[in-house]
Amino acid sequence: MMRGAGCDIDFLFLHTYPEEDPALTKEFIGEDHFITFKNKKRPFHVWLKRKVRAVLEILHMPWIFRNFSIDESLSPDLGKCIKDLFEKKKYDIVWCEYIYTSKALLYVPEGVTKVIDTVNAFTFKRAMYDAVGYKHYIFAINKKEEAKGLKRADYVVAIQEEEEAFFKTIVPEGIKVLTIGENMPISEPYAAKTDTILFLGSYYVVNQQGVKDFIANVLPLLKKSGVPYTFKLVGSICKHIPDSDEYMKMGYVEDIEDSYKDARLVINPVNQGTGLNIKSIEAISHAKPVVTHSVGVRGLKSDKHFAIVADDYQAYADAIIKVLKDDELALNMSKDAAAFMKEYIDKNNASLEAILEGK
What we know:
37% of the residues lie in helices and 14% in strands. Helix 8 crosses helix 11 (313-325). The chain has two domains: 41-179, Rossmann fold (3-Layer(aba) Sandwich), CATH 3.40.50; 196-340, Glycogen Phosphorylase B (Rossmann fold). It is of the alpha/beta class and 359 residues long.
């Protein structure tokens, strides 16, 4: 999006973990615009807190330090790195990805536009993990810490409208909050002449919980209906779902386009989450009818009928059966998905333009 708007971009990669491989990002950005910062040093109190967390995880006692502090993921040397960059080059905008990098904005000179691209509202992360029984420590903060980080910016970017509304309640007047979602290419509308139900996703814990719930409670209802169907799982989620004759685990595929083309509809059975549900947006961009829980379309308000929302098992099964049996419905939902994506992309582009022009 930024390149399309004519921006010249340098990317500062915070190299935090040994297993991180930035090769694809480096290739996309270009070697001359890719800068690596070794983000490993921590103040003693942060180092000690992390050691305590590691012990508590081993002991299955993750209740101390459940929420992180906003700046504990950054090295104290980051400020010097940013100051050095500004001595070499003039930047008009500094764009921080994720709230936990917001401390970088404290080192940005006056007159430079400061942006935080939140990606998620991390205030709600801990409750989400608890809801699916995930007890490990992953970055989550309380509302006070989130507000502390957001106050460092001139612009706060939410990934969807519900989180935009939340951020507006915790930042002072004068900080502009707007939504920029995920732009994706739009497929031509069509109704696949198949009986394929598709779930495409990663091994993320909420995906695992949602798919297992679907298999246990919705698949039996589909089977009982007698309507032919083929349920396919695609992506790293397959490694965490047991084998069964009731569905097909395709694993990693070279080209997801083929998986979408084959699908009559896409399901999103995830019932917990924050941020934007990328699975839903990706399916919509491929002009696919979507059957989902309410969580799957959070922040995607529209008068377009691209999704059927069902929050109980029988309604979920009935919605799938309806799309499988009704060619006209499947085609109309596909058309509405493509029309929604057009409007959605236009809104995203307008929000980015507002930031770049200082509106």
